[in-house]
Amino acid sequence: METSRSPAHVRRHAIAALLAALLLAAAGLQPAVAADAADNAAEREMLAAVTRQLELLDRLAERGATAAPQERARYHFDYARLRADLQRMRAGVRDYLVPQRAQPRDPVPLAGDYTRSGAASDKEAPSP
Q1: Residue 2 burial (CB < 10 Å; 0-12/13-18/19+)?
Q2: Rounded to an integer, what distance in angstroms lies between the CA atom of residue 26 and that of residue 54?
Q3: What angle do CA 38, 50, 48 make, to 5 degrees?
Q4: How far apart are CA 98 and CA 92, in angstroms?
Q5: Smaller CB count within 10 Å for the chain: N or C?
Q6: Is 86 exposed, middle or buried (0-12, 13-18, 19+ CB in 10 A)?
Q7: pTM (2 decimals)?
Q8: In 44-73, which positions are buried (b, 16+ CB within 10 angstroms) versus exposed (e)?
Q9: What string of DSSP letters covers the chain?
Q10: Cβ of 43: how many Cβ atoms within 10 Å?
Q11: What is the pLDDT of residues 41-66, one digit of tens each?
Q12: Phi and psi dihedrals of 100, rounded to 5?
């Protein structure tokens, strides 16, 4: 006999799976933290695996967001915030694995104030 699952039941299972995946990702970091600094290849491999796990978590969060009920209860899981945090973590790991070259600095600071009075003309020199 097959029973239908309520949206709340599906949502609870999706959140439980998401949290379990987060715990697995955190557990996967332990060997990388304890590894010898000279073993750079193993660390890079572990961080690449973490990136893949974060991508999986993002896909799970995306599915969870679509399975969540449209009407909002008093408390609800913020899938958008979770996905933004996952994106930030992936970007941090990616930046570590593929560091950017240093960009030349622009020594002139930006003004930041772009408001002008109504009587000022376009040919007026910018104020310091």
Answers
A1: exposed
A2: 10
A3: 60
A4: 10
A5: N
A6: buried
A7: 0.51
A8: eebbeebbebbeebbebbeebeeebeeeee
A9: ---PPPHHHHHHHHHHHHHHHHHHHHHHHHHHHHS-TT-HHHHHHHHHHHHHHHHHHHHHHHHHHHHS-SS--SS---HHHHHHHHHHHHHHHHHHHSPPPPPPP--SPP-------TT--TTSPPP-
A10: 18
A11: 888 899 999 999 999 999 999 998 88
A12: -80, 150
**Structural domain spans, the chain:** 7-97
Q: Which residue has the tokens 């973490």?
A: 50
